[in-house]
Design a protein that fits this description.
alpha+beta; T-fold; four-stranded antiparallel sheet; 5 helices; globular
């Protein structure tokens, strides 16, 4: 079966599914099921949607429970994990069907499993022809690589980072960590301390934070390389207003093998 890059839009979710074509349907079904559970939680509990602090709702479903657990350990609201959570459960569905090499990129929050090396771009500078990227080695299990930005894209950040990136043993945790790290970036001086609250969180692999061109690294990130940027490969919702990303958002990533 051929490897495909399937772009799907389901309500607010815009995702690129990279995998052998036979696995795509299971990922789409998982995205729909996860969204249904999250939407049900939002309808009965608007605080779950709005809060920017950890929250433990009564009798959550399994997907919402995972969101709240990751948010709790990182100090953010559960909706800070929603994109990574949807990517995670979609890839888990593919892995359950036998996928050993693939990813789900939910608008820049990525769950992946690799049986060969791949390069993941993290574009952060409007108008630039090149970007830095992570050179990813084969993985034993699913990993998450997620980003946040205080200056680019549509996601909410309480900081002013050009980009804050987290790599973790799930995209749910990586999404929570990226938001939390980005919230702690306030000017270049904060790069010395922005990882401190999160260094001992189980499951965190590494992180990167950039502001005003200065970069801080933490943990065991893959090797950084320079790549040519191609904005046509970014995962951006068709309803995004022109110029919101312009091929330049730190929340837009792609994986190439």
């Amino acid at each position: 079966m051929a490897f495909v890059h399937a772009k799907v839009e389901i309500a607010e979710t815009a995702a690129t599914i990279g995998a052998e074509g036979t696995f795509v349907e299971s990922a789409v079904d998982a995205i729909k099921a996860a969204r249904k559970e999250i939407e049900r939680q939002v309808r009965r509990d608007q605080f779950f949607l709005a809060t920017m602090e950890p929250y433990a709702p009564e009798d959550p479903g399994p997907v919402v429970k995972r969101m709240c657990e990751a948010a709790s350990v990182t100090g953010v609201g559960p909706m800070a994990t929603v994109a990574g959570t949807i990517a995670q459960v979609a890839l888990e569905a593919m892995v359950a069907k036998g996928c050993t090499h693939g990813w789900v990129d939910n608008g820049g929050d990525v769950a992946l499993i690799l049986d060969k090396t791949a390069t993941m771009e993290v574009f952060h500078e409007p108008g630039a022809a090149t970007a830095f990227a992570l050179r990813l080695e084969p993985t034993d299990d699913i990993l998450g690589v997620c980003t946040s930005s205080g200056r680019l894209g549509h996601s909410i950040s309480l900081g002013d980072s050009d980009v804050a990136l987290a790599m973790a043993d799930s995209a749910i945790l990586a999404d929570a960590l990226a938001t939390a790290i980005g919230n702690h970036v306030h000017g270049t001086s904060s790069l010395k301390t922005c990882f401190d609250p999160f260094k001992d969180i189980p499951g965190m692999i590494g992180g990167l934070a950039m502001v005003d061109g200065e970069v801080a690294l933490h943990g065991r990130l893959p090797r950084l390389v320079e790549v040519e940027h191609n904005p046509e490969r970014l995962t951006v919702h068709s309803r995004m207003p022109p110029g919101c990303y312009s091929g330049s958002s730190a929340k837009a990533q792609e994986v190439r093998t």
